[in-house]
Amino acid sequence: GDAPVCVRRDTGAALQWRIRNLPYPPETYSVTVEGEHVVVRTSNKKCFKRLDAPDLRRLDTAPDAALLTWRHANNTLIVTHKKPPVLLRHEEAERAERAKLKEERITGDDAGCKQQ
Fold it and tell me: d(Cα 106, Cα 98) in Å, to the nearest integer?
């Protein structure tokens, strides 16, 4: 189909959305922050998308227009929002917690799980 398709692809430093099947010239697009959403519009009224960032919402943080960039290439609009420091700290804490749990599982006492 020719309908726009939105895919979320994050990087280590940014949240990223890719909207495919958008053949319009770059000057057609408007990417703004409205409340807790990033909003993509076209001046020809062919596309309107609200991009959700549940990662930010969980931390009571709204998207920041100063951290938002976008580019258009190969009929794809790529919207990038740099991860704010609060999200980077949260992700680092989660990584440390997972590493700790993994370490406990490897070196943990298996006394309660005797093999039959």
Answer: 12
